[in-house]
Amino acid sequence: MSHAVVSREAWLEARRALLAKEKAHTRALDALNRERLALPWVKLDKDYVFDTETGKKTLAQLFDGRGQLMVYHFMFGPEWDAGCPGCSFLADHLDGTLPHLNHHDVTLIAVSRAPLDKIQAYKRRMGWRFPWVSAFESDFNHDFHVSFTPEELAGETVNYGYVDMPPSQANDELPGLSAFARDEAGQVFHTYSTYARGAEELLGTMMILDRAPLGRNEEGDMDFIRRHDEYETAPKAGCCSAA
Predict the structure, then answer these.
(1) Can you tell me the mean pLDDT for 164-180?
(2) Which of 56, 214, 230, 236 could form an SS bridge with 226, CB 3.0 to 4.6 Å?
């Protein structure tokens, strides 16, 4: 480890300079959040149905009586044996938010295309409590551009994160975060979606590492991530494989 070592006075000068940039970043983020909240909404007319632990439910029923719904698009394909390690890393941060979100009129769930029995088995393995439903028989994941058919992946481009990209940069499943609102009449509106690193602020571990002496200390994007029960045995691998 090689790093400059200076006097306390020199460190304070550098720290105050960085603090000014941190404050500017915070103000810019506040302004961005205001713009996000001001986005127009789109009314959903399609009646999506999901498999849940208590039977089939529509998207409106997934709100669980609340007015707001946050959906994490968890990478877990029908043929996969386990969920994506990167999505699993993010999911480790969700359970503690549930009582706070629920008391703020927000329901948080995960949605994957894997069949419900696979989801439930993996959820038990990971020890998670957050609601997780299957879109196996639904167009939901395809309509929100987080799942792609073999035909789409054999084409010239796929649309992910609001841009067309080469299929070689995609996968049959990709991550994302979507927000929905429900009015008193039961109508559902799509209010926001973000993809790839757009949900990175949900990763409290990363936010802590960004302030640790060596930062994320990674050779590639999230290359150190493992499922939390695999750290002792797993070799280094990409975070979003289907293994």
Answers:
(1) 94
(2) 230
